[in-house]
Amino acid sequence: MTHSIMLVESLGVQNWTYILVGVTFAIYIGIAIWSRASSTQEFYVAGGGVSPLANGMATAADWMSAASFISMAGIISFAGYDGAVYLMGWTGGYVLLALLLAPYLRKFGKFTVPDFIGDRYYSKTARLVAVFCALLVSFTYVAGQMRGVGIVFSRFLEVDINTGVIIGMLIVLFYAVLGGMKGITYTQVAQYCVLIFAFMVPAIFISIQMTGNPIPQLGFGSELADGSGTYLLDKLDGLSTELGFAEYTEGSKSLIDVFAITLALMVGTAGLPHVIVRFFTVKRVKDARKSAGIALLLIAILYTAAPAVAVFARTNMIETVSNQPYANVPGWFKKWETTGLIAFTDKNNDGLIQYVADASKNELVIDRDIMVLANPEIANLPDWVIALVAAGGLAAALSTAAGLLLVISSSVSHDLIKKILKPTISEKGELVAARLSAVGAVCVAGYFGINPPGFVAAVVALAFGLAAASFFPAIILGIFYKRMNKEGAIAGMVVGITAMLLYMIKYKLGWFDNVLPDKSDWWFGISPEGFGTIAMILNFIVSIVIMKFTPEPPKDVQEIVENIRIPSGAGGATH
Amino acid sequence: MTKSNAKAYWKENIRYVLILLLVWFLVSYGAGIIFKDALNNIKIGGFKLGFWFAQQGAMYVFVILIFVYVRLMNKLDKKYGYDA
């Protein structure tokens, strides 16, 4: 054995993690310095000259958050078929985005989503409502990201979670404040490369191990590599029912709820301000369409691999621990036990681990995040692969956080200060305001990352419902229904977001009743996660009814609508 | 002339969008959710078909749909002289 291999092997997970995280952070900072923003146009929309490929990569990184990277495969591995709501929900929204929103918003040529709402509905009130919705959606989302950064740091580098959050804040602060959208775009391109590599390498390794097929998307539908001739999925279905769980490929949610959640997530995705603004950064309308396609292609690489990882990890996990003596568990089990993510209590004192569906007999509690974080260790992959997962998780969390912070800062400096409070502000003054709001937003996000209110985790998933209930109908009607006026749009947004908030508070947080109401109380059997669909329909109905009784929009606004429907002549964004 | 040109362009655009969204709906809500149980009786390799649509197939079709839309619209832009 040569010396270099010895050296590589003796480095250990810890040092590999320092090296990989250090190198990727140095790259992000280097890009930030190279791509400083010098005008508000560069700060808000990267000068409007980003190529479709770069924008597609940036959108993909912007989109895939700590939740996509760390938690999604784990959620699926516990939910089985039901996990499809996230897979279809978080990808199908891009079809809506590409066909119904992105090209028209690009032609419209402004900086922010409230910009569109404010101009299309010729109203400061509409703009204010939109700013409120954008801030609400973005803050609930960003708090979760900062927490994700802290968790990755603490698990892999054994620093305190809070120290991790602060390191993450400083990095994001540096490139978001310096570079604005321009800096964020090019760091996100790098972050996409890091996160997709980090996700796919372990997935490919494990797919080869278990099925002999190097493509995970095919591997989880293949026969096992042990020569038994059994399909992996059949085996997992068997293991699941043996332990008392639902059959993996069947799931247990009701059809209407699966339907509603999927639709809420799709429509919410298409209405998320930090995703929409990415399409303001390309040059032409045709580039906006194309980059939506590239973004979804790049996202789908991870999203189609995630259900495969879920199956591999679940099968591996059950096989490794189920009915095994606790004394013989592998090293990773002990290591993750100390983090509290795995907990074993020997209820019947037989020294064996009983992992079963029946809660009174089950002895093992597994946090779903482990399925991605510990997956390489469970499969005995080399140290550098384990370290890679840490770098990938950080890339995913940081890229999303930066995109959200930009939406928050531009909502404040552009929509609130420039368009409402102080229209006389100079270009230079607005740029300073934008940077200061970014600093403020990072501090607030960091605060929530360090002191997470108990409801953050519960609420992050609902950011989609909020976006679906507020922006999506207002934007769609603004483009496809010339007659839609400000009265209708404002009433629709207010009713939609209020309904969503109330349902969420009642059925997700339980603040109205002191206890969380039972599932049987849900309207039409629809969970809070799926209620965005109902709130969106309410928004559409209210908008259209109110519009029928109020005057039609002024002629010049109707001309704007006709103009955004034609793709040619999309200039740079203007004030 | 330009007004009627714009109108005809918009009409064709809407037709494309509706057809593509129909496919979008059929592969996800149709094959992946509503008809999942029926499709699960068919197996392709180790995959039950309904499960495969929900966790794989729908996503592949989504990607294809956007690229088909890009192609159709680029052609349409040219036809109506909006590709400048």
- What is the fourth-level CATH superfamily of chain A? Sodium/glucose cotransporter
Largest sheet of chain A: 2 strands, antiparallel
Strand share of the residues of chain B?
Answer: under 5%
The count of DSSP E runs of length 2 or more, i.e. the number of strands of chain B, is 2
Helix segment tally of chain A: 24
Oligomeric state, counting identical vs distinct chains:
heterodimer
Largest interface in this structure: A-B, 48 and 42 residues
Mean pLDDT of chain A: 84
- What is the approximate shape of chain A? globular
Cα-based radius of gyration of chain B, to the nearest Å: 18 Å
With strands numbered from the N-terminus, the spatial order across the biggest sheet of chain A is 1-2
Structural class of chain A: mainly alpha
* Strand arrangement, major sheet of chain B: 1-2
Question: How much helix is in the residues of chain A?
Answer: over 70%
- The number of distinct structural domains of chain B comes to 1
Q: Structural class from helices and strands of chain B?
A: mainly alpha
Q: What general outline of chain B do the C-alpha atoms trace?
A: elongated
Kindly provide the name of the CATH class of chain A. Mainly Alpha
CATH topology type of chain A: Sodium/glucose cotransporter
